[in-house]
Design brief:
The chain has 296 residues and is of the alpha+beta class. Helices cover 53% and strands 16% of the residues. The protein is built from eight helices and nine strands.
């Protein structure tokens, strides 16, 4: 493949089935290796045309070799700083910790698992318990606002030179969680709202490890993907599927470890336990300065 520029927009066409055509953003074309981020089927050969400033600039062929949970990868992984497992470990530890913290110390509210909050909200709504309804409605609305805020930062600062835009999200998370540690129990609704806001930013911002889509603040999607990958490996003995299953099960174990740590620390330090998450996110922030160009 010819060398190209990062950030080009490419059009991918499957000539055997034009309905599968899609537009993707070219992330890496360098020394014959290219990686894109679109939604395509596994194992199809595509003709890739890259356009810049409205003019035809590059043509090459790309064989997409793997699709997992809606994402596909090329033969080689050229990792973004946030895609490394080491950075994801501390983000995921923080996600598990936050869920345990709000449930134990902040009135049995789930910061991450909005499904649980919606179930409890619905039950309170049918009972006519409006105070409980408000208790669970606040983190749900905060989660929505947090997702919107993370996307705004992505759009506004994705070309920011000084820091990676995901690092800006981490800094904002650290500030909010630090503030939560100062809020007394009389302000538990505000504390839960801030933690849910942070969780939404985190799950929206950090969602890939070496090309595998994952969630750093909840387990159901990771468990489904792990089971799917393990089933594929048992059926076809595909090494890539086994690696994917290991990645997902590893994330689940890290999340569980974070939840366990959060439970222990919160029992002893109560509302100030959340400051542990600030330290975990700070480590991830620092690690993101290190680029990972290893193969998956």
């Amino acid at each position: 493949y010819p060398a190209g520029r990062t950030g080009m927009v490419i059009s991918v066409t499957n000539f055997s089935d034009p309905s599968l055509s899609c537009h993707v953003a070219l992330k890496h074309v360098l020394f014959g290796e290219c990686e894109s981020s679109g939604f395509c089927r596994k194992g199809l050969l595509f003709s890739v045309i890259a356009c810049n400033m409205g003019r035809l600039r590059r043509t090459c062929g790309a064989s997409l070799t793997q699709t997992r949970c809606g994402m596909q990868r090329s033969h080689h992984f050229h990792g973004q700083m946030s895609d490394t497992f080491r950075a994801a470990v501390f983000v995921t530890l923080s996600g598990g910790f936050q869920d345990a913290y709000t449930y134990i110390s902040r009135g049995q509210v789930f910061a991450n698992a909005q499904t649980g909050n919606i179930v409890l909200l619905s039950a309170a709504l049918l009972r006519g318990d409006w105070a409980v309804c408000l208790k669970y409605l606040i983190p749900i609305l905060s989660f929505v606002l947090g997702t919107m805020a993370a996307e705004f930062i992505h759009i506004r600062f994705r070309n920011f030179r000084q820091l990676y835009w995901r690092q800006l999200v981490l800094l904002q998370e650290i500030v909010f969680l630090c503030a939560v540690g100062f809020l007394p129990h009389t302000l538990d609704p505000l504390a839960n709202a801030l933690v849910s806001f942070v969780c939404a930013m985190q799950v929206h911002t950090f969602h890939k490890i070496h090309g595998h889509v994952y969630a750093s603040t909840m387990c159901i999607g990771n468990l489904r993907c792990a089971a799917e990958a393990l089933g594929e490996y048992l059926h076809g003995h595909n090494r890539a599927s086994l690696d994917a299953a290991k990645t997902y099960f590893g994330v689940i174990l890290v999340f569980a470890a974070g939840a366990g740590l959060g439970s222990l620390v919160t029992e002893f330090t109560d509302i100030r336990a959340i400051w542990v998450c600030c330290g975990l996110l700070l480590v991830s922030f620092i690690l993101m300065f290190i680029r990972d160009d290893r193969e998956a």
